[in-house]
Design goal:
Number of strands: 2
Helix content: over 70%
Distance between the termini: 46 Å
Largest sheet: 2 strands, antiparallel
Strand order of the largest sheet: 1-2
Number of domains: 1
Radius of gyration: 19 Å
Order of helices and strands: EEHHHHHHH
Shape: elongated
Length: 159
């Protein structure tokens, strides 16, 4: 029995669906940060990072914009399936740091602890999903696959 849906391999449809859903949060929140950079500079994770690396000093604007741009562009790359593995790995590593710095529920109490614990575990799901995309690549319905197909169809000049 073939694993198909609408005559197409199910694994590639699932991979495309996962890329679409996973990239949405990166693109939306990265773009929002670009429009209102204070969403990044006043974020708990950013403030905690600045405590660790800059003795609590303000976040440099270049770093804030670079981060928002990274989040947006890496999300677009996963969406399109362009350099999918590189983008997914970068997002995986970024999310690991963000999750640790931004949602340390183990050091909180009450409502703050409950909220950050839920965000921590939500991010673990995103980390796992991007790690799986890193492991599998973009699939059949990706720019990476189109480029690979075009390279394999280009005749090699024996001279």
């Amino acid at each position: 029995m073939k694993n198909q849906l609408l005559g197409l391999p199910t694994n590639n449809i699932v991979l495309l669906s996962a890329r679409l859903m996973m990239s949405a949060s990166m693109i939306v929140y990265g773009y929002r940060k670009l429009l209102d950079i204070s969403m990044f500079t006043s974020n708990f994770a950013t403030l905690r990072l600045m405590e660790l690396v800059a003795q609590g000093g303000p976040c440099p604007l270049w770093f804030a914009y670079a981060n928002a741009l990274f989040q947006t562009l890496a999300g677009v790359m996963v969406l399109l399936g362009l350099q999918t593995r590189h983008a997914a790995l970068a997002l995986t590593l970024w999310l690991i740091a963000l999750t640790y710095l931004g949602h340390p529920f183990w050091s909180m109490l009450g409502v703050e602890q409950a909220f950050n614990e839920s965000m921590f575990y939500r991010n673990l799901g995103l980390i796992a999903a991007f790690a799986m995309i890193f492991a599998t690549g973009g699939g059949k319905f990706s720019v990476d696959q189109l480029l690979s197909d075009a390279r394999s169809q280009t005749p090699v000049d024996p001279a």
